[in-house]
From TrEMBL:
Keywords of the record: NAD, Nucleotide-binding, Oxidoreductase
Name under which the protein is recorded: Leucine dehydrogenase
PANTHER family: LEUCINE DEHYDROGENASE, VALINE DEHYDROGENASE
InterPro entries: Aminoacid_DH-like_N_sf (IPR046346), Glu/Leu/Phe/Val/Trp_DH (IPR006095), Glu/Leu/Phe/Val/Trp_DH_C (IPR006096), Glu/Leu/Phe/Val/Trp_DH_dimer (IPR006097), Glu/Phe/Leu/Val/Trp_DH_bac/arc (IPR016211), NAD(P)-bd_dom_sf (IPR036291)
Residues in Glutamate/phenylalanine/leucine/valine/L-tryptophan dehydrogenase C-terminal domain copies: 141-339
Positions with a binding annotation for NAD(+): G179, M180, G181, S182, V183, G184
Residues annotated as catalytic: K75
Source organism (scientific name): Actinophytocola oryzae
Family membership noted in the UniProt record: Belongs to the Glu/Leu/Phe/Val dehydrogenases family.
């Protein structure tokens, strides 16, 4: 991937209402219109927001390709400057600015929710563009994508458990969930219900109520059976002590090189863009491809099979699961061979 230009289209615009820099990054439309969520959070500089958009958009290309979707990858980042108070008025203006920018892509980029945005925001965005998914059910959408995302992660966890421990059940296992946002909360709840001993961490300690809690700084290196990254990315480097890492956070690794060092130290890392596909698979399945709930959920459950296949290939070839997943994505993204 290197330093060379690889994104098809990237626009950063200072919002005319909010003064907040908004980026829409379209990484690839080879398989269809780019699809990816809208991240709204604070960044130290607009360049940090842009860099995040570029990484996240690329991740969506791989996520959608590996999931077998006829969509490319893109992402929106609304980069509220850290230090500026995120008031409801500023938030609404920044969303409106993002809506105008998304509209300018005329359907070649389709937006959904991500960290910092939800179904009510998608409804609000509809006043500016048709090309948003996950509106509330009362408005004809499929609502929050967090439930299907969590379902997909649980499918990936089962495959990872089978590969690492020889059994897919988490009962009696110590599982660390880092990030108690909309998906992490569901995972902590479901994993405990399945008999796992769940430890949680979040920068906002009030979200950890009801669980054994550790500091975020300690969570990634805690001795445990499974580590579930469910917050922002760029967090997994050296020092992981769980033999299985699988979760919904996008861009989990500090750098792609970490995949090799994890593998060498016997840690199985399920690529984030494989484990986290449940939300897009379900939402696009229902809202773009007309599947009913059961059919779309069945599609989400196939993540278990995908992860099983990738981990088996990784073991057989001595390659990292990341390399296997990227190779699968690249095969799907490869242009049809020329006939001349
Ligand atoms: N936040 C989702 C992801 O990272 C993006 C998304 C969800 C896009 C639902 C469209 C619909 O995969």
């Amino acid at each position: 991937m290197g330093e060379s230009w690889e994104h098809e289209e990237v626009v950063t615009r200072l919002g005319r209402r909010s003064g907040v820099p908004v980026t829409v990054a379209v990484h690839s439309r080879r398989l269809g219109p780019a699809a990816g969520g809208i991240r709204l959070r604070q960044y130290a500089t607009w360049q940090d927001g842009l860099a995040d958009a570029l990484r996240l958009a690329r991740g969506m290309t791989y996520k959608n390709a590996v999931a077998g979707l006829a969509f490319g990858g893109g992402k929106t980042v609304i980069a509220v400057p850290s230090g500026v108070a995120l008031t409801p008025a500023l938030r609404a203006d920044a969303l409106a600015d993002a809506g105008d920018l998304i509209a300018s892509f005329e359907g070649s980029y389709l937006a959904g929710p991500d960290i910092g945005t939800g179904q009510e925001d998608m409804l609000y965005l509809r006043s500016f563009t048709d090309h948003v998914f996950c509106l509330p059910e009362a408005h004809g959408g499929t609502g929050s994508s967090s439930g299907p995302t969590a379902r997909g992660v649980l499918a990936a966890v089962r495959a990872g458990m089978s590969s690492v421990f020889g059994t897919s059940t988490v009962a009696g296992r110590r599982v660390v969930v880092v990030g108690m946002g909309s998906v992490g909360t569901l995972l902590a709840r479901d994993l405990s219900a399945q008999g796992a001993s769940v430890v949680v961490a979040d920068v906002d300690e009030t979200r950890c109520a009801g669980y054994e809690q550790v500091a975020v700084a300690d969570a990634y290196s805690l001795p445990a059976d499974v580590l579930v990254p469910a917050a922002v990315g760029g967090v997994i480097g050296e020092g992981v002590r769980a033999p299985l890492v699988v979760g919904p956070a996008n861009n989990q690794l500090v750098s792609d090189d970490v995949a090799a060092s994890l593998n060498a130290s016997g840690v199985v890392w399920v690529p984030d863009f494989v484990a986290s596909a449940g939300g897009v698979v379900y939402t696009l399945g229902r809202e773009a491809s007309g599947l009913d709930h059961d059919a779309a959920m069945a599609q989400v459950e196939t993540i278990e099979e995908t992860v099983t296949t990738l981990l088996a290939a990784s073991a057989a070839h001595g390659a990292t699961p990341l390399a296997e997943a990227l190779a699968l994505a690249e095969r799907r993204l490869a242009p049809a061979p020329s006939r001349v």
